[in-house]
């Protein structure tokens, strides 16, 4: 079974000749449901691929060409408490993104008509300052990275950016850990 997802597969029709299952929207929760069905299928002896695909088509956010009728994109409802990896593998060599990346906000408040990312990650969801600090502390402790990157489509639009930056600086400057904001709009300076 070939599964695709992410922004490049958000319009699945041009790829239906090559892909069996499309995940439309965010995968953090849906991937576990897909795994349960596929693992369950292998545990019941040989099951026809078509039967597995029919089961997968019942999951909200899954598009199976020929089996799905109307598909609603999947979003993480509880962004604040969603799983966030803080104990990641740290490469032995220097890499381009040699830092901790923490998603502080998903979606964008601007809703620009031309922006595909805004449509895919709508509605706007925000992590609390306390949750971001918790993720940062765990990540620094577990990885030893010396930079934290605050990620979103428009990090300067995070409503608590000044408070967050101040608290991160208080906590991590003595440890030599830098903070970066890679996605800023000019108007948010």
Account of the protein in words:
This protein has 189 residues and is an alpha/beta fold. Helix 5 links the parallel strand 7 (147-151) and strand 8 (178-180). The strands form 3 sheets. Strands 1-2-3 form a 3-stranded mixed sheet, with no helix packed on it. Strands 4-7-8 form a 3-stranded parallel sheet, with helices on one face. A two-stranded antiparallel ribbon has the order 5-6. Helices cover 29% and strands 13% of the residues. The relative contact order is 0.12.
Radius of gyration of CA atoms, rounded to a whole number = 20 Å
Sequence stretches where pLDDT stays below 50 over 5 or more residues: none
Structural class: alpha/beta
Shape: globular
Strand order of the biggest β-sheet: 1-2-3
User: Helix share of residues?
Assistant: 25-40%
How large a portion of the residues is in β-strands, by DSSP E? 5-15%
**End-to-end gap:** 47 Å
> Order of helices and strands, N to C?
EEHHEEEHEHEHE
| Rounded mean pLDDT score | 89
Major beta sheet summary? 3 strands, mixed
What is the number of helical segments per DSSP (H or I, 4+ residues)? 5
Work out the number of β strands.
8
Question: Can you describe this structure in just a few lines?
Answer:
By secondary structure, this protein is α/β, with parallel strands linked by helices. It has 5 helices and 8 strands; from the N terminus they run E-E-H-H-E-E-E-H-E-H-E-H-E.
List the helices and strands and how they pair.
Elements: E1 3-5, E2 21-23, H1 30-43, H2 49-56, E3 62-63, E4 100-103, E5 105-106, H3 116-121, E6 125-126, H4 129-143, E7 147-151, H5 161-172, E8 178-180
Parallel strand pairs: 1-2, 4-7, 7-8
Antiparallel strand pairs: 2-3, 5-6
Helix pairs in contact: 4-5
């Amino acid at each position: 079974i070939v599964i695709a997802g992410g922004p490049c597969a958000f319009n699945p029709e041009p790829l239906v000749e090559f892909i069996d299952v499309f995940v439309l929207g965010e995968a953090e929760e849906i991937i576990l449901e897909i795994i349960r069905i596929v693992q369950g299928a292998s545990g019941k002896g040989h099951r026809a691929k078509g039967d597995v695909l029919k089961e997968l088509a019942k999951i909200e956010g899954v598009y199976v060409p020929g089996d799905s009728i109307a598909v609603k994109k999947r979003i993480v409802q509880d962004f604040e408490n969603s799983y966030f990896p803080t104990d990641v593998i740290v490469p032995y060599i220097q890499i381009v993104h040699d830092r901790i990346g923490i998603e502080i906000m998903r979606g964008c408040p601007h809703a620009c008509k031309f922006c595909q990312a805004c449509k895919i990650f709508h509605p706007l969801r925000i992590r609390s300052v306390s949750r971001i600090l918790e993720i940062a502390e765990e990540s620094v402790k577990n990885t030893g990275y010396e930079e934290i990157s605050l990620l979103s489509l428009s990090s300067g639009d995070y409503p608590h950016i000044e408070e967050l930056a101040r608290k991160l600086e208080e906590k991590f400057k003595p440890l030599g850990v830098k903070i970066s904001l890679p996605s800023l709009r000019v108007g948010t300076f």
